[in-house]
Write a structure and sequence with these properties.
The chain is of the alpha/beta class and 156 residues long. It has one domain: Rossmann fold, CATH 3.40.50. The protein is built from eight helices and four strands. The longest helix has 13 residues. The termini are far apart. The relative contact order is 0.18. The chain binds iron/sulfur cluster (SF4).
């Protein structure tokens, strides 16, 4: 039995509503990075935690607490999500901190493949910046240009 923990990107879940369907689907189907495990070895997902947000102000040291929450349950391997692996500018710092704090812990970079890495990068950039379709913000309320959803909208 391999006890697995997943470390994800806070921004993809908090800001983009990612439900990790790709990560979890690959785990269930033993695809992507989960192919590496022996076929006879059951995979047990112990838990998922996210990084806590971009550590620009506090440095990467905070990550150990997040990982500790999974290590408390004796995980055998920590998988970085594929978003964290490919797009996080702090990934290497996270890796360095985790390897220093938990030298015995197996760390796997990624959960699932991307069909088109560059298209995914462009999509994530758009989801983060919201430039193509302007979202409403506090200034829309202040300047009285805010659009309010009504029940009539649902009928049309
Ligand atoms: S630090 Fe990396 S993994 Fe965490 S929210 Fe920022 S981009 Fe995502």
């Amino acid at each position: 039995m391999a006890k697995i923990g997943i470390l994800g990107c806070e921004a993809t879940t908090r800001d983009m509503n990612c439900v990790m369907v790709g990560c979890l689907g690959n785990l269930r189907g033993r695809q992507g990075s989960f192919e590496e495990y022996e076929e006879a070895e059951p995979l047990d997902l112990i838990g998922i935690i996210h990084c806590g947000g971009c550590p620009t102000a506090v440095g990467s040291e905070r990550i150990w607490q997040k990982v500790q929450a999974l290590v408390d349950y004796s995980i055998d391997a920590l998988h970085f999500t594929s978003c964290l692996t490919h797009f996080c500018p702090f990934k290497d710092e996270f890796l360095e901190t985790i390897r220093k704090e938990y030298p015995e812990l197996k760390v796997v970079e990624g959960t699932h493949p991307f069909h088109d890495l560059e298209a995914t990068r462009a999509g994530l950039k758009e989801l983060a910046s919201q430039k193509a379709v302007t979202p409403q913000r506090m200034n829309d309320l202040v300047f009285k240009r805010i659009k309010i959803h009504t029940e009539d909208d649902e009928d049309s």
